[in-house]
Hints:
Blueprint: E1 6-10, H1 14-25, E2 30-33, H2 37-56, H3 63-68, E3 70-73, E4 82-87, H4 93-106, E5 112-115, H5 122-126, E6 135-140, E7 149-154, H6 161-172, E8 176-179, H7 188-191, H8 193-204, H9 210-220, H10 227-234, H11 236-249, H12 260-268, H13 295-318, H14 324-333, H15 341-348, H16 350-364, H17 373-381
Parallel strand pairs: 1-2, 1-4, 2-3, 4-5, 5-6, 7-8
Antiparallel strand pairs: 6-7
Bound molecules: nicotinamide-adenine-dinucleotide.
Amino acid sequence: MTKEAQIGVIGSGAMGSGIAQVAAMAGHNVVLYDNNVSAIEKAKTGLSATFQKLQEKGKITSAADLLNRFTFADTTQSFAGCSLIIEAIVEKLEVKKSVFGEVEQVVSSDCILASNTSSLSITSIAAACTKPERVMGLHFFNPAPLMALVEIIPAIQTTPGLITIARDLMQQWGKLPVIAKDTPGFIVNRIARPFYGEAIRIYEEGIAGIGTIDKVITETGGFRMGPFALMDYIGHDVNYVVTETVFQAFFYDPRYKPSFSQKRLLEAGWLGRKTGKGFYNYAQSAADTDYTTDINTGRGIMDRILAMLINEAVDALYLGVATVADIETAMTKGVNYPKGLLQWCDEWGAANCLAVLDGLYEEYHEDRYRASPLLRKHAAGNKKFV
Ligand SMILES: NC(=O)c1ccc[n+]([C@@H]2O[C@H](COP(=O)([O-])OP(=O)(O)OC[C@H]3O[C@@H](n4cnc5c(N)ncnc54)[C@H](O)[C@@H]3O)[C@@H](O)[C@H]2O)c1
């Protein structure tokens, strides 16, 4: 696809306006549509301010020229000349299906239709179209202009040739594309679940407080943010809902079980930073948060969360969700992990990681702690992943 191709974006919220910005900065004319007029106005004002700032910093030559590449639309009819449409509306399957059906009536027969969904099945969205073979997932990360990773997700109906077209285009846009099988949470939102879930479990069991767990993960693990600070940052309305959706989509596999602690925060409206309160109270200073520095507690927390994360990465590889290289890229570029989890496993030793999981399995007798057969094989054969 060349720069002359016109790109359509459905939904002008946080993700849609970010994706539209990326496409325009890569040289395309962009049609940005929303069914809410005030959302379009907000996007226009936001993009204009962003381009102005980029011009002041000398990163672009003309904010006005970039803004001229946009058509702000309140009807899907404006998509008629587009070669690719990326949908970023509310995360509801029935709404997405109906919008895809509507847009398909307007666009040309070879226009590619993509969804930015975080957790819904691309195959079921494609099934709502008369030409399901032109539908795929293009999953950007927030904020889209800054995060390099894009997960490309073919539905089971997608024409294989479209994957290459999408990969080439994302590279032209300066992105790092990875290919993921159409399974719940794709790569990042599947593998990252224990970062939150296991941390909450350790806290609920009274092993350590949130301050301790966050400190261990950042100081020992080298992660930029601890799980509780990160959940508060993402917002429990988003993070809890992804966890619950992934849990249901995996037929209630206990590995992905949501927690009552986080559900209660959501019910109380304590959504995290944006409401001033979540796991942390942002009216208090960080110094008020308890933490212990007991070295054995710290090692136990780190080993337990890391073993669960590695197990998810290894199991995703085992089940063909993505390649070794794409799993490593996804976790280091999509959620900024300090190291790829498969490389981390190699350095730690598959046998050591397995010993932690088998110890947990022994202690709890829960399927949640079952080790991937591939981890077991690598431990037995002393093999490396990377
Ligand atoms: N926010 C994130 O961190 C993130 C990251 C990756 C993917 N996603 C996914 O991207 C999508 C959008 O998320 P967001 O955070 O940008 O949401 P948002 O609420 O900021 O924006 C959604 C926009 O879609 C519009 N909209 C809703 N229904 C519509 C319809 N029927 N037709 C046209 N426009 C409609 C709304 O008016 C709103 O402007 C979701 O599928 C979400 O799962 C979000």
